[in-house]
Amino acid sequence: MLLLSDRIDEWLVTNLTEFEGKSLQSVAKGGLDLGSLEDETEKEEREKESSAFQELTEKMKEALREQVKDVRVTFRLTESPACLVADTYDMGGNLERLLKSAGQKVQHAKPILEINPHHPMVQRLKTEVENFEDWSHILFDQALLAEGGQLEDPAAFVKRLNELLLLKSLS
Predict the structure, then answer these.
(1) Predicted local distance difference test score (pLDDT) of residue 125
(2) Superfamily grouping for domain 38-170
């Protein structure tokens, strides 16, 4: 396993797909297949768990339709509630920002929001009715910040967060 943490690494892996007979795959792109590391029982449990969250992912996709291409359950996260990944053939967020800073015109591709079904925020969102859209936007914005992106409307993020915190503290 290689840890490529430099901003230019995504460009490198896009152009260098193999090294010494080993294929390189970005964990930040497409559906990461960890199937070879799981036994059949684990695969079945994960499929069952994913289907239990299908209604939630559909609702979130509708709430975030302007920002995301898709919303899906992931098992790659351990502590974070959500992350953003690029679709298999789309440009990732870091490479997009790098090219824009170099003066290149880049067509923006919507990312895929992956949610962690074991995280308490996602568990709560599954039962949330009243502030569902706000919580969905908060999760998206947090994932965007965590991957190094910038919020399109920071004031809206702060307003949403403050309102939700006030609701929580008053109840």
Answers:
(1) 93
(2) Heat shock protein 90, C-terminal domain (1.20.120.790)
